[in-house]
Amino acid sequence: MILQRTIPYDVSAARPLPGIAPLAPDDWLCVDEGFAAQMAERERLISEHRAAVIALDESARGAAGELLDMVLAQVLDGAQYAREGDVVIRPDGGRVTIERGDPLATLGRLVQEDFCILDKRGDEHVLLGAVLCFPASWSLDEKFLRPLVGIHIPVESYDSNIARRVQRLFDGVQPERPLWRFNALWYDDASLHQPRREGERRESVDPARAGFLRSEMQTVRRLPQSRAVVFGIHTYVLARCDAEAAMATRRAP
Length: 253
Prior knowledge:
Strand content: 15-25%
Number of domains: 1
Strand order of the largest sheet: 1-8-9-10-6-7-2
Structural class: alpha+beta
């Protein structure tokens, strides 16, 4: 079981959908207390279940390489990562070879974030590539090459009004002005890798009794050269006692 004990934002501060706010570029990527354990799980999933967690259309290969360069530039600008030639040393001591022919797998081994690459095709952005180790009730192979509306089936709150607002957001986001939002749902299962098909409804969970709070910090950022949009996901899972303590602390005067 891989859990964090803290979360860097107030999950009780509900925002109307789509709940977007500006994000400082330096806060785009995070290293938290679950880093080592999450990275070990990411390595296992990429090695043993690659087809379930990585997909890339050839039309997005350039964007994937650009994303890798952007992530490398940011992590190597700080003190937590180091580089020896073509090898990056992570904060937990893990060594990752930079494989430019396999950019999404390299990204999946470098940072805790999952990444989805979307580009405009007609009227909507379409999912053209992803490293998605920690899906929460959706499956990459089912959503790959779908537009935004198709990706969000069967999310009931993703109605036509929200769809238009999200598409405008994707159209307007700028490279140096990333955006972010969060979600938060109670789960009975703390597993990070929880894919689910569209026809498989998540079992009903009683929020008052569920053992774990799962929250995704979701970021939206445009790549400056390819102009593709990157949707990033940093996953937090907290035991109920820690989640309630974190919420109480943030509500305290």
